[in-house]
Design goal:
The protein has 265 residues and is α+β, with helices and mostly antiparallel strands. It is built from 7 helices and 6 strands. A hairpin with a 2-residue loop joins strand 4 and strand 5.
C-alpha cells in the first residue's frame, strides 16, 4: 500500500487489467496477448516526447487547422500530427501535438481535457508511447481506458485511474479458535451466552404463540362473518327478485281480465 498510486508509473498489462492493480491472473485473452507482446516504439516518430500531447476521441471530420486553432491558445505549437489511414487517408480520430514550452504543455493538459471540438468531447493526455516504460498499445491488448461494452477496461491512466485497494484483516484463525490462548477464552463464556439466549428465545416464542392463535381465531371469525353477510345479502336479493316477478304476474292477470270480459259481451 505504501507504493500505491492512482496513475501507473510503469506499464504492466496484468495490473492495467485490474481495477486496483492487484490482480494476479489475467481475466481476458487481450491481457495475455499484451503480456506476450514485444512492442518497440515507432522510430520514425520525431520530436520531444516530453513536450507532446496525445489527443483522442476526435471527430473524423476534424482537421489539423481546427486543432491548431484550438490548441494554439495554450501556447506556441511546434508540430501537429493527425494520424490517418495509410490506404484511405481518412482520420483515425487521434493526434499528437508538440509544444515549444513545457508551460504550454501543462496548461493544455490541464484545461483542454474533455473539451468539445466539432460536437465531440476529446480526451487529452501526455504521450505514453515513448515516455512510459513497458508501454503496450491498445491494438496489442494494452493501453488505458476502454469501453464497458468491450469487457476489456484498462486502469492506471488519466481516464480510468486505479482505485485504492481494500485490505481486509484475516479473521479466519481467530474465528475458528486457532489463535493464541488468550483469544480463545471467549469460547466457553460465549456458549453460556448462547444457551441463555436460546432459552430466552424459547420463552418469548411461547408467549407469542397464544397471541398468534388469537389472531388466527379472529381471522376465522372475520371470514365467517363476511360469508354470513354475503349469504344474507344473497337471500335478500332473491326475495326482492321473487317479489318483483309476483308483482309483474299480478299486473298481467289484471290486464287480461278486462279483455276476456270484452269477448263475452
Amino acid at each position: 500500500m505504501n507504493d500505491w498510486a492512482p496513475i501507473a508509473k510503469e506499464y504492466d498489462p496484468l495490473k492495467a487489467g485490474s481495477i486496483d492493480g492487484t490482480d494476479e491472473e489475467p481475466h481476458d485473452r487481450a491481457i495475455w496477448r499484451a503480456m506476450l507482446a514485444r512492442y518497440v516504439p515507432n522510430k520514425g516518430v520525431t520530436g520531444d516526447p516530453h513536450l507532446t500531447l496525445f489527443v483522442a476521441r476526435l471527430n473524423l471530420q476534424t482537421t489539423e487547422e481546427k486543432l491548431k486553432e484550438v490548441f494554439s491558445r495554450y501556447g506556441d505549437i511546434r508540430k501537429i500530427r493527425l494520424v490517418r489511414d495509410l490506404v484511405t487517408g481518412f482520420s483515425k480520430g487521434y493526434a499528437f501535438i508538440e509544444y515549444k514550452e513545457e508551460r504550454a504543455l501543462l496548461k493544455a493538459h490541464r484545461d483542454a481535457n474533455r473539451l468539445v471540438i466539432d460536437q465531440h468531447e476529446i480526451f487529452v493526455d501526455f504521450e505514453l508511447e515513448r515516455t512510459l516504460k513497458g508501454w503496450i498499445p491498445r491494438r496489442l491488448g494494452g493501453g488505458f481506458g476502454g469501453k464497458k461494452e468491450s469487457g476489456q477496461l484498462r486502469f492506471g491512466g488519466r481516464d480510468r485511474p486505479f482505485r485504492k485497494p481494500i485490505n481486509l484483516p484475516n479473521m479466519k484463525n481467530d474465528f475458528y479458535g486457532e489463535g493464541p490462548a488468550e483469544k480463545r477464552n471467549w469460547s466457553r463464556e460465549g456458549t453460556r451466552d448462547w444457551r441463555t439466549r436460546d432459552r430466552d428465545h424459547e420463552r418469548s416464542r411461547d408467549k407469542r404463540w397464544p397471541e398468534k392463535e388469537r389472531s388466527w381465531a379472529w381471522g376465522e371469525s372475520e371470514r365467517e362473518r363476511d360469508s354470513k353477510e354475503e349469504r344474507s345479502r344473497g337471500r335478500d336479493r332473491k326475495d326482492r327478485d321473487r317479489k318483483d316477478r309476483d308483482r309483474d304476474r299480478s299486473r298481467e292477470r289484471n290486464t287480461k281480465k278486462p279483455r276476456d270480459d270484452d269477448k263475452y259481451r
